[in-house]
Amino acid sequence: MLTPLVLLALTSLAQADDSTGTDAPADGDTFSDRHPESDPNNGNVRHGIRIGYVYLNQSELAGLKDPSLFGVGWEGEFRMIGSESVDFILVTNVMALGMNQGLLLPTGNLLFGAHIGNMVEFGAGVNASLAPTPALHMIVAGAVTPKVGTLQLPIALSYVPDVDGFWKVGLTVGVNWGAE
Questions:
Q1: Of 9, 27, 71, 94, most Cβ neighbours within 10 A?
Q2: Model pTM score
Q3: Domains annotated on the chain, with CATH
Q4: DSSP type of residue 22
């Protein structure tokens, strides 16, 4: 615990402005000035619709007629500035699954990950689902996000493992938009 505090103190001292004798940033030298892209209204908060299928193995044990579940949902992404080629992302996703079987099975995901080269994303987090039974699971996902004008058209693949053998794999497509 002491080592991170020492590093933080040394980093703070190294970044201090020696010419003014204060730690206050000079005009035009605030984080927002140096990183206008970090403004949530400047393209770092994106959201949009998702459609796709989820395959649930052992679906017959869950009382489903078919292992394929059609889904419609909404996704939100907050991008935290990392570097020119890698940003960190926080992704939330809610979907209604099972409409192809006359069911409504809500599911939600919260993932932390990386957005690389303005095209590829991957992450891991938690999945909350009612199929086959209410439970929390781990989820891993990856996506390619080609940009078309101001829109992103993500194509995502996800996997939800389960110790009891009820794993799920999903493929979704959608559209993201946000302030540019």
A1: 71
A2: 0.74
A3: 45-177 (2.40.160.20)
A4: B
